[in-house]
Amino acid sequence: MSQSRPLYLGPRLRRLRRELGLTQQGMAEDLAISASYIALLERNQRPVTAELLLRLAKSYQLEIADLASEDADDYARRIAEVMRDPLLEGIDLPALEIADLATSFPGVAEAILRLHGAYAREQQVLADRRLGAAASEPGTPDPVRAVQEFFSANRNHFPTLDVRAEELAAEIAEHGAAAEWLRKRKGVRVRFMPPEVMVESVRRYDRHNDQVLIDDSLDTSARKFQLALHIAWTTMRDEIVQLARAADLPDKSAVALARRNLAAYAAAALVMPYDRFIKAAESRGYDVAALGGVFGMSFEQVAHRLTTLARPGHEGVPFFMVRLDAAGNVSKLLDGAGFPYAPHGGSCPLWRVHDTFRTPGQIVTQWLELPDTRRFFTIARTVGGEPRHFGAPAAVRSVALVCAAEHAGRLAYARGADPATAEATPIGVNCRLCQRADCEARAVPPIGRELLADDQRRGIAPFMFADR
Fold first, then answer.
1. What is the pTM (predicted TM-score) of this model?
2. DSSP string spanning 323-367?
């Protein structure tokens, strides 16, 4: 006959108490027990009885099922993920021992998870330093990185801008076109001028004559976006400035950059209003080219907009987006999918985003698997390459979209594929952070591994390690 296991809720109880803003004495008074008993419960030195469980639920208006669900399963799952780190390869820790650790010693489990999390973060920082991520002295603010983190913290979604943009888009639709709306509502003319008149600008506002001048050598989607940018700046300036000021950015350069990026966000929301865009995206399987045709926008503009669909209750597929050149320099980075990426020092050479330069204009797809066994699906394509006029420079870049494997079935590019069995390419964040010792594509050894000095043997991989 099976015997029920004692219920230990130490970390959960401590977290609940802190969320409620209570001291141990305050919670003890609410539950009619002693403060010392609360301390024992939080240290998992006493199990929680059924009677106490009922008191907790009644005193703090909690569901018993939620309260009684142990952290052990979550700890066991996360520790199992940690143990899949290639750095720990060869350590035999069976699933039963992991479960025992998570159940009987949740404090130790939490300590392991915190240490591994700190290790992963420090590895990233160390890699950035070694690879010259900061060209200036340590401690000098990096405005680009700060703004990227600001957008990432907001999941690249700003509801106030989306709502205002939808209202404006409806107004503009009543007038037929943005230029007509500007003329009638703002008294501003739109004129398309040759490059020599624009004086190295693609858009310029002539305040003296109340006119917006746009380079006439831009293609249709670029003209449309530049006009939307002017409208965003002049009608949503207060919202944009308020968001940038509230971002707690390190310096004026970062604030200015944030304002520019928020204006671009607002412009995209204006030409691709949230409700219309997400409905079209779902119905067309997130086909970027098809969506470009619907809204008259470029591949990159649509890809960028796809990273912003995080409205609560009306979310789209969460996407990560990166734009880079043939040398690996990153010029745009938007993370809405939790995809680990090192913005400095190059990405994994096995990721096919780099192959797109050999097949310009063609979409490349790929399943990816990280060292921690998480799977992702990616599409990539080159953008640019067409000069605005003869003699003008033409920059070719690659744009990649990445989503978690469980969302791939919603994409036209991966329909019919099973994310669990699809053949995936093993990749790392970059060589400095990837602990896969047998990778033939490795350029440099990973941080924290001692190289094996063996003059008698040359392995398949470029480096061999002493702890293998």
1. 0.71
2. EEETT--EEEEEESS-----SSS---TTSGGGGGGGSTT--EEEE
